[in-house]
Design brief:
2 domains, 10-stranded mixed sheet, 6-stranded parallel sheet, Rossmann fold, about 375 residues, 16 strands
C-alpha cells in the first residue's frame, strides 16, 4: 500500500491486548507509522514488538511511559491503559504535545474526561477516542438512509445490544472486572459502544433522562457484569440498550422511524473484515394473506480495502497532519462526541447506583 512521505509517527503506551489490533492498524494506515512501544517493563515492550511481528530496528522498545512522551520522534500516542489510568497519562500526553488517540471508555466519569479535553485544547493537540466502528464506510452509508426523511421519516426508537460470554479466566483476571483498574466493567466496555450507537442514530442529540433497567449483575468486587438502560428524549424518542460479559456474542442495532427501519447484526465488529452489511426497509407491510412481508427489507453490503481500525488511524493521522504541516487547529467533532457518550454513561451508572431511579442528563 502506498504511504505518505511524512507519516504521523505513533507511540503506544502499554501493551494491552487491544494494542495488538491498533499496532496492526497503524501499519496498515498509509499516513501513519509505529515508532515506539512503551511499557513500565522494558522486556514486555520488547516481547510485544517481537510477538506482533514488528521490526525491532524501526520500532523502539521503551521502558517507561514518560520516555515515550518525551521522545521528539513521536507525534501522537495511542493509550490503551486501564481506564483508571487514563486521566493521568492522557493529560501527560497532551502536556507533552502529543496528539491523543485514547481507548474507550475515555474516563471513569465526565469530570475526568473534561480534564483530558481541557489539556488537549490548551496544548493544541488532536483528541479522538478508539470507537472503531465509527470509521467503517458502512456507518456513513447507514447515515444516508437515516437522513432520508422520505424513506426513514422521524426517528422514534433505538435498541442496541452488545454482549459476549467471557470465559472464567476473563471473569476472574481481566482488567475490566477489577474495581481498581476498570471500575465501569461491562458498562464502560460494551455499554460505551451501545451508548455511542444510540447517540449516532439520534444525530448526537442528548437524551434528557436515563433510567437503568432492573437486573444489573455485579461480580463479588461490585463491578458491573451485565446491565441495561432506557434513554428518553423530550420529544418522545426512546432508546434502550443491554450490555453484558455473560451473554452470548451479540452486536445488534435497530433504528426505527415513522416510515422506515434499519437493522445491523454486527455493528461493533463486522462478521468479515473487508465487508459489512445492514438491512433497511421503508413502507413495509404484510402481503394479502399476512404470510410474509411485501416488499421485504433490502440488504446493503459495503466493502472496504482497509479494516475499520486502520481507517480510524488514517482519519486521526489526517487531522494530526493538518495541524503539524498546515498550522491547522484540532477538530472538535470527536471530543464533543466522546463527551456526550461519557455524560450518558455517567447517568446510567448513577441510575444503577440509585436503584433504577431516573437521572437527568445535563450537558
Amino acid at each position: 500500500m502506498a504511504t505518505t512521505t511524512n507519516p504521523i509517527q505513533f507511540g503506544i503506551l502499554g501493551c494491552a491486548e487491544i494494542a495488538r489490533k491498533v499496532a496492526r492498524a497503524i501499519g496498515l494506515a498509509p499516513n501513519a507509522v509505529l515508532v515506539a512501544v512503551g511499557s513500565r517493563n522494558l522486556d514486555k515492550a520488547r516481547r510485544f514488538i517481537a510477538d506482533n511481528g514488528l521490526d525491532a530496528a524501526a520500532v523502539r522498545a521503551i521502558g517507561s511511559y514518560e520516555a515515550v512522551l518525551s521522545d521528539p520522534g513521536v507525534d501522537a500516542v495511542y493509550v490503551p491503559l486501564p481506564t483508571s489510568l487514563h486521566a493521568r497519562w492522557a493529560v501527560a500526553a497532551a502536556e507533552s504535545g502529543k496528539h491523543l488517540l485514547l481507548e474507550k471508555p475515555t474516563a471513569l466519569c465526565a469530570a475526568e474526561l473534561d480534564r483530558i479535553l481541557s489539556a488537549c485544547r490548551s496544548h493544541g493537540v488532536q483528541f479522538m477516542d478508539g470507537t472503531m466502528w465509527m470509521h467503517n464506510p458502512r456507518t456513513a452509508k447507514m447515515r444516508e438512509y437515516l437522513s432520508d426523511s422520505a424513506r426513514f421519516g422521524q426517528l422514534k426508537t433505538i435498541h442496541s445490544h452488545f454482549s459476549f460470554a467471557a470465559d472464567s479466566d476473563f471473569l476472574q483476571n481481566d482488567i475490566r472486572v477489577k474495581p481498581d483498574l476498570d471500575a465501569l466493567g461491562a458498562l464502560g466496555d460494551a455499554g460505551w459502544y451501545c451508548i455511542r450507537s444510540i447517540l449516532w442514530a439520534a444525530d448526537y442529540e442528548l437524551p434528557k433522562k436515563a433510567i437503568a433497567l432492573q437486573g444489573t449483575v455485579n461480580n463479588k468486587a461490585g463491578v458491573i457484569m451485565s446491565c441495561g438502560s432506557s434513554l428518553l428524549w423530550e420529544d418522545g424518542k426512546v432508546a434502550t440498550f443491554k450490555c453484558s460479559f455473560i451473554g452470548h456474542l451479540t452486536m445488534e442495532l435497530s433504528v426505527v422511524g415513522t416510515n422506515g427501519s434499519l437493522h445491523v447484526s454486527d455493528f461493533v465488529i463486522p462478521f468479515e473484515e473487508g465487508k459489512a452489511s445492514f438491512s433497511f426497509g421503508s413502507d413495509l407491510a404484510f402481503n394479502e394473506l399476512v404470510t410474509g412481508w411485501q416488499p421485504p427489507p433490502s440488504k446493503h453490503i459495503v466493502t472496504t480495502d482497509l479494516p475499520q481500525e486502520a481507517l480510524m488511524v488514517q482519519e486521526f493521522s489526517r487531522m494530526v497532519g493538518s495541524i503539524r504541516d498546515s498550522a491547522g487547529k484540532p477538530d472538535d467533532k470527536w471530543p464533543v462526541i466522546s463527551r456526550k457518550t461519557q455524560l450518558v454513561l455517567d447517568a446510567v451508572r448513577a441510575s444503577i447506583d440509585q436503584g433504577c431511579e431516573p437521572v437527568e442528563i445535563v450537558e
